[in-house]
Amino acid sequence: MARRARTRQDLDTELADLPPELRWREWMGRVEAVIFASPEPVGREILARVVGRGCNLDLIVDDIRGELRGRPYELVAVAGGWQHRTRKSFADAIRAATGMGAEDPKPLSPSEALVLMCIGYFQPITRGELSQFFGKEISRDVIGHLRSLGFIAAGPRSPQPGAPYTYVTTKQFLSHFGFDTLRDLPDMEALEDAGLLSKDRLLAGDFPIARTNEDDFVDDGALDLPPEEEPWP
Amino acid sequence: MASRARFIPEPPPTFPAFPGWARPPASGEVLEDTGFLAGAALAALHPIASHEHLLGTLWRQRLALGCAAALARQNGRTEDEAMLRDHWYLRRDGDDPGPAGQLLKAWRALGERSAMAAGDWEVRLAALLAHSFDDALQEAIAFAIDQLRGPGSAVRAAAAVAATSLRFRPDSRPLALWLADAVLAHRLRWPAPVPLLAAHLKRADFRHAAAHADGDSRWLAACSLAYARGAAAAADLHANLAWRAGRLLAAGSQLRGRDADMMVAILLSEDAQPARTGKAASDRSSRRLFERLVALGGVRELTGRPTFRLYGL
Lengths: 233, 313
Prior knowledge:
By secondary structure, chain A is mainly alpha-helical. Chain A is built from 12 helices and 6 strands.
């Protein structure tokens, strides 16, 4: 902590001796450099450390975006911060050249994606509740894989025998799927209005939610759920 | 053997009972004099809110819990107060308490003294409420900071701040309600904000917010009534907590455990506390301490579960 405070003092953020245009260029440069150097989205409070107090970061970011127009990468706002990303239209070229992105070393299988989606909507939720929800055991490997990808983290412990950890989604989950907040999850509003965001009621089997979606899931063969014999709990 | 030095906190001061004539009727009636009621209720709350005692922290945390539960319900989530408390206390330090738990985190932060530092609001609120940092957020906060001083009544300022914030960020009621309570505390010179508004505004009241800037008075009336109700409920809660704190202190003097004095001080200032290994006491001795406190009537077990118990006033 003390060390960080000192480095912040060492860096001249106000740049009072520079004329305004040069000062602005310097701030822009610093902000872009910090974002460029960081492997993950950079939040505002971090960027505020390298610019003067009277500096509007949004204007800086807008100017940087303006400069990047026509470049193959851009500055995007994700997970409450900013990050450099290549433009979508170059995805094919990157894939052809490096093979990157074509297949993740360990891609999400459809059923893992479904589990992740379920955690996103019903967090905090334990593995046991997930298993009950899907009507089949959700293995530790699935949870472990999602955790190793950084999409979920441990939340509060559930007051049940064994005190299992619940799981919650992380900032990286938001960043990866391009959501800004959890409110951006698809159909969140519709689910809320229908009162479907209630974990307890879902687990109690009050809603025939599976019936409407089940066909889609089964059709693509993603889930090895027996379609009819295994009623959803 | 020399006896250990005992540390017994001061008993909380008692305040005059909340005047019955300032208490808004429970429901049903359309009220004319909401401004008067809000003023009277906040004046009655003033000595409680400006007094600094350990119990004030606990009091604000309980109010925060009520506010967070109300907001979670309005957001379509199903967490109630007990569940929110579980989420908050049954996690490791630094773990994410979940989406509804984040609301509780924001409201507990509202009740802290540091919430009065208006310069930090932008960064703190963006982090607490997980908002994208955009012009709208800054405009809303800038308006709130502008309203910290000025003419006019405190409730009117708070209502205006909430309405303006809702105009800039219609998606974020928590932001509006947080700012309104913080501005009210600044106007009334309280040492720390008291979470009042969020728990007592009804969902239907929010549709009046948009018309507030055009001189429509229904939003102001709704906010005034919410503050009147909130202040009455808060004063009652404080009276109840002060009575319980007196019992805890009476029971505390009979305790002999190693961490007993420290635990009594913690229980006076913290919403709930699980039995766990303490500084000098083992897990088991901490359990015994709480069992003894419950037997003496000093604390309650808040969850009603046989396991994963949480104790508090």
